């Protein structure tokens, strides 16, 4: 067996292990996401929780949803994850953090600046926003 064939087999084996791992993580995240739906439904049904607790549960649901979507995009894009999606996820995750952690105003201002910087990066690298020259 030549070295290049051996390297190709190692790469294919690693890709297989990574794909199986991602599918396993996706199944676990799907279970946790459904658990969050149950928690929100229970809190809404009983009405015993405050709004902040319900908001945290809803944000957790969307975090699980974002990670599941990220894994699906990885498979859809032929084992590649576009940088635009990472920037988008960073913006939404930062916004969710601002919503939940609303006690420190200065920290929220800095996080808002981070969102603007991520948005600028998204616009710069996104091929959809470039002109048709």
From TrEMBL:
Keywords: Cell membrane, Membrane, Transmembrane, Transmembrane helix. It comes from the Bacteria. The chain crosses the membrane at residues 16-34, 54-75, 82-99, 105-125. The keyword Ligase does not apply. Coiled coil: none annotated. It is a multi-pass membrane protein. InterPro entries: P_starv_induced_PsiE, P_starv_induced_PsiE-like. It is found in: Cell inner membrane. Belongs to the PsiE family. This is Protein PsiE.
């Amino acid at each position: 067996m030549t070295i290049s064939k051996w390297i190709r087999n190692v790469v294919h084996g690693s890709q297989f292990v990574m794909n199986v791992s991602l599918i396993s993580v996706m199944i676990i995240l799907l279970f946790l996401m459904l658990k969050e739906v149950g928690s929100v439904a229970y809190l809404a049904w009983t009405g015993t929780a405050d709004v902040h607790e319900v908001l945290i549960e809803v944000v957790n649901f969307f975090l699980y949803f974002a990670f599941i979507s990220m894994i699906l995009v990885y498979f859809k894009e032929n084992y590649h994850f576009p940088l635009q999606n990472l920037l988008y996820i960073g913006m939404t995750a930062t916004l969710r953090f601002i919503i939940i952690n609303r006690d420190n105003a200065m920290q929220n201002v800095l996080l808002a600046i981070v969102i603007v910087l991520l948005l600028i990066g998204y616009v710069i690298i996104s091929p959809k926003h470039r002109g048709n020259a």
